[in-house]
Amino acid sequence: xxxxxxxxxxxxxxxxxxxxxxxxxxxxxxxxxxxxxxxxxxxxxxxxxxxxxxxxxxxxxxxxxxxxxxxxxxxxxxxxxxxxxxxxxxxxxxxxxxxxxxxxxxxxxxxxxxxxxxxxxxxxxxxxxxxxxxxxxxxxxxxxxxxxxxxxxxxxxxxxxxxxxxxxxxxxxxxxxxxxxxxxxxxxxxxxxxxxxxxxxxxxxxxxxxxxxxxxxxxxxxxxxxxxxxxxxxxxxxxxxxxxxxxxxxxxxxxxxxxxxxxxxxxxxxxxxxxxxxxxxxxxxxxxxxxxxxxxxxxxxxxxxxxxxxxxxx
Length: 314
Ligand SMILES: C[S@@+](CC[C@H](N)C(=O)[O-])C[C@H]1O[C@@H](n2cnc3c(N)ncnc32)[C@H](O)[C@@H]1O
What we know:
Blueprint: H1 25-29, E1 43-46, H2 53-61, E2 66-71, H3 74-85, H4 87-102, H5 106-122, H6 135-149, H7 178-187, E3 191-195, H8 201-204, E4 209-213, H9 236-251, E5 255-261, H10 272-276, E6 281-288, E7 300-307
Helix pairs in contact: 3-6, 4-6, 5-6
The structure holds S-adenosylmethionine.
């Protein structure tokens, strides 16, 4: 029987993240490896974690025993770890943010947001991302506060690594989503969370595993900011390294699924992924980008999904 939730509350991503997959989960469910249903897969890996939409979906639907969640973004990993280990302390701080922010008018909300953003950027160099400590709690709370109240929830940094997203204008942002954070905390107990480059995955891989890769998109237009997740870019060379890892995992018998924006959305003759993953199962599914600063570019576009197994189909 499929497991559907932990203590009746289904956890979902507690951050809004560029490239987040919540909108695609229904379609993805027909593309997960069939071996999940008959419990032949025990381990789940997501090395481009972001908000972890697929992680939350898979581990609450199937009997996964261990999850391995990696991302190169140290602020993101810090926040996930605090949710995993010290959710009560985090909730206390978020309640304070919620109370303070809700009591302010629009102008004061804006200046509060920019004050917090300035403090957050100033403290970046003073933060030790390598050793877990109670100093992480305030920073994780600040990260969630900024994520919930910034414009479009877009995590964006400038060339100096400073968070530079402007203030949003939400009537009632859910800064402290207590039920969801508690549910996420429970779900995360099976997870090993670490800051890592995706290439480290090969050292950690166990048998009976499913890996989902959601790398930064190849930019779909010259003005697209979809690769601006962290300071480093993720160019075609990185996409090729990832394809080589995909093939190594395939040889080890690991089930692998990868998604990316379909370059054919812009140029029908662009066969980059078709060539990179030739011989594997490639499907295209309609996707709607929800994070784009230009509303006119929010039209229907395809996501490309590559698997090394036959899917049930969407
Ligand atoms: C498309 S997002 C993942 C979105 C996620 N699936 C979700 O639902 O929110 C890509 C992620 O890859 C991370 N990333 C970028 N370069 C990386 C690298 N070399 N190794 C690991 N993670 C990386 C970014 O920090 C970002 O969080």
